[in-house]
Amino acid sequence: MTNISTDSSRLFRICCIALTVTAMTFAIRAGILGQLGAEFGLSDGQLGWVNAMAFLGFPIAMMIGGGLYNLLGAKKLLLVAFVCHLVGLFLTITATGFWGLLISTLFIGFANGAVEAGCNPLIADTYHANKTTMLNRFHVWFPGGIVIGALISKFMTDAGLGWQLQISVMLVPALVYGLMTIKQNFPPVKASQASTSNNIKALFSPLFIFMAICMTLTATAELGTQQWIERILGASGASPMLIMALITGLMAIGRYFSGPVIKKLNPAGVLLASAVIATAGIYSMSMATGVMVYFAAVLFALGVTYFWPTMIGFIAENVPESGALGMSLIGGAGMFAVSMWNPVIGQWIDTARQNAINNAVTGIDPELVAGQTVLANLAIFPAVLVIAFSLLYYYMNKRTAA
After folding, report:
1. Superfamily of domain 199-402
2. How much is the pLDDT for 1?
3. Following DSSP, what letter does each residue of 81-114 receive, concatenated?
4. Measured in whole angstroms, how far is the alpha carbon of residue 184 from the centre of its chain?
5. What are the respective helix, strand and coil percentages of the chain, to the nearest 5?
6. Are the C-beta atoms of 136 and 313 separated by less than 8 Å?
7. Secondary structure of residue 402 in the 3-state scheme
8. Where are the alpha helices (DSSP H) in 306-379?
């Protein structure tokens, strides 16, 4: 039997299709929440728990997958993701109530995390000379997949097509990446990174711990803001869904052309510039209304574009001893932080709205006041990162010069 070539471009395509499925699950689930609530008589609180399962399953899979990457390799982790995607999607389609949706979403969240756990180290090993650039290009397909999923959901909803059909659409790209994975040979784990004990030791390095803490802030600034964009900007006079499409579209373009930016500024410089721009973007959104919200959203998009993939790439390049485990735990720390901050952000919205109602001023919408207040709070996250990444930039330049 002839061996199938471990062609790097084919491996990269498999990873990109798998990540597109991951992103589509986020977008289409958001698009059908109203239908799910109406059909099964679910409260917003119950729908919130359904969403939470995706954010819980994701870091669990990344932590488990990162720990087992040396043993299983990328191919088996992608096959685990494929099976969990199929199970999760089928369970969602056949769900009859709250518990069915809860369990199915947990499977999908686990599948999404397994994709990242397998693909991030695979790409870092395959493109060892330009890890951060290629990880940014890989992560093009998260915002790209959100745009695809959001447009599919909007079109199908407007056409009167049910939520089961919208979920079924995702089976097609899932089957594509699954079958491609089955047929494709994958390279073995690099011997230099195959010691899990060495990986664990590297996790306790000051640089890794510092970056893990920063990842909780970068992820919350990016995903925490986007997850609540409908509630935050619903009364701003701008369309939240158009803003979401604008943000994710710009992120996809920025990540695709990340190479020159990273080469010019280096990863630490990119992170510092991103923090400054993200702070300006979120704070601008907290004051803008109407058409000006779109301009502020552009700033926000430019600020958060490089956060997630550059953080993972930074670890791959500067703490290589942590291996796949390090990249997975960095991503897991970010997603876990988002899951923890989501209820807090929700409480901020409730409190700010109630305060606005209690101190009602004629002509001012309490929902607008609540959204602007929460955005001002969220601006604190990237503002702290400006300080943190300034220190990182100084440290990395000093280490390079030594």
Report:
1. MFS general substrate transporter like domains (1.20.1250.20)
2. 35
3. HHHHHHHHHHHHHT--SHHHHHHHHHHHHHHHHH
4. 26
5. 85, 0, 15
6. yes
7. coil
8. 307-318, 323-358, 366-378
